[in-house]
């Protein structure tokens, strides 16, 4: 049952990304390119997405457990840390370069052609390589 | 107001509704990079893995179905192989080091005023902007 809800959430997420224009790299790069023809669409997407989520977080305080789970996620970790900054910077650089982040890269797989598939493949390779890379770096530090 | 802004807002509300559903029913944070990353690096196992695979199935399948019936706007992705591979690697490695991307840190983090989510968003937006300046306006590769 949890998997059915997960599939439904994934489907809604994908349809939202598709409708909002986030699977169009021109729109994403248009938002990031403040020195070009700036496109504010992404602000509407982010704002629109934050609204229901803010209500949902508030509702988690009123109920003890999720409908099909044992516990809600713990409160956010207060510590920022170097990894958060380094990782987000690397991610942002790649996001700008191609105009795709992980959600839209998966959502547009069906019509993204060979380029979209190659991006997803490279992204997955990066994800698989990260845990061993992290161990390597922490052993050096 | 451009019609695209309205689509953006509507699409955003649907994205937020998806995250709200995942949180309130399954008790989980809807982060695309965490869900995919933990499946491909093997850190998700058993029922957890099944649930995440179902999420990915819906995320890939539903837009595919809509595209099949109604068509989809092109992704307009660069056709430069080096750009695609470098960007994919950066996004994959970066999101796993930072433990989140636009959905996890951006949508789910900011909506509960998580300092980590806000700081991550500031850094990936800044880096994205600098990336555009560097690769589009200075180097001219995109």
Automatic annotation (TrEMBL), chain A:
It comes from the Bacteria. Keywords: Membrane, Transmembrane, Transmembrane helix. InterPro entries: DUF6691 (IPR046513). The chain crosses the membrane at residues 41-59, 80-98, 110-129. This is YeeE/YedE family protein. It comes from Rhodophyticola porphyridii.
From TrEMBL, chain B:
It holds the Pfam family Sulf_transp. Its main location: membrane. It is found in: Cell inner membrane. It is a multi-pass membrane protein. InterPro entries: Sulf_transp_TsuA/YedE. Signal peptide: none annotated. It comes from the Bacteria. The chain crosses the membrane at residues 6-25, 53-71, 77-98, 118-139. GO terms for cellular component: plasma membrane. Keywords: Cell inner membrane, Cell membrane, Membrane, Transmembrane, Transmembrane helix, Transport. Belongs to the TsuA/YedE (TC 9.B.102) family. This is YeeE/YedE family protein.
